[in-house]
Amino acid sequence: MITIPDITLNDGHRFAGLGLGTYNLRGEEGIDAIVAAIESGYRVIDTAVNYENEAEVGEAVRRSSVDRDDLIVTTKVPGRHHGRDEVIASAQESLERLGLERIDLYLIHWPNSRVDKYVDTFRGMLDLRERGLVRSLGVSNFTAPMLERVIAETGATPAVNQVELHPYFPQAELRAFHAEHGIRTESWSPLARRSELLTEPVLGELAEAHGVTPTQIVLRWHVQLGSTPIPKSADPERQRENADVFGFSLRDDEVAAISALERGRLWDGNPDTHEEF
Length: 277
Ligand code: NAP
Fold this sequence. Notes:
The chain is of the alpha/beta class. The chain has helices at 27-40, 54-63, 84-98, 118-130, 144-154, 172-181, 201-210, 214-225, 236-243, 252-259, and strands spanning 6-8, 14-16, 19-21, 44-46, 72-77, 103-108, 134-140, 160-164, 184-188, 227-229. The chain has a single domain (6-259), classed as NADP-dependent oxidoreductase domain (TIM Barrel).
């Protein structure tokens, strides 16, 4: 089993240095894949209402040999459930589908700022925390001005902002804002959905120098940026490869060489304009 180091969020709760993405892991095969990841050492499991696999995630939690309380189950409120009362109903539905008594980390999936309900949604999440139904509160796809607004209007600082982050889109400014406010960065599509990233020559060279794979170089880069990557893999061997990145380090110039691959977002997931419901 691989030991993925814990980290502590700004609310004092435990999180991890790397987690499992579950987009497209569904049905019995999905459950098997999630159980395999838990058995090999993953503790943070990332789902969302819109991935339509909360039931699979809950079932995997029950089938695994790991204590429920050692796992950090993350789900997300979709755009169509924004609003103070709506988010409470949505969380209750998620808990039913998960078959769990608590969501460990609850995120606003997209800000949908034209609808302008994310602050109220976060207020509802504070109510949910008060009632013990969720433990840590965070957001996803929020920009610095959106985070500033949540902090100013609710008096609470999200524990996590899960954003697009990979060597093609390193998000230096947003990460600096997170660091200043004690917000944990979590990287979605950390492998850039595989794309052509893993064949970039610089990654091949670094992989050879460190005796690891290009994928491990990318995931180690996330770890050293201070972000929690959540690579998705359906394959137990690739899951283990992805988690096994805590036994070597990159030098600062190597981290910089990977960040120099920057060229922009994978698709037009700009939080100022993109909406999801
Ligand atoms: P990703 O993790 O960057 O890439 C997943 C792809 O890489 C899959 O095709 C996977 O195939 C492959 N892969 C994984 N490990 C590999 C390895 N060691 N070698 C070669 N290929 C490998 O992309 P993602 O699924 O888009 O992002 C990860 C998670 O972030 C999602 O699952 C989801 O939980 C979350 N997410 C959140 C948002 C948001 O708006 N908050 C948006 C997108 C994603 P196999 O499965 O066959 O290994």
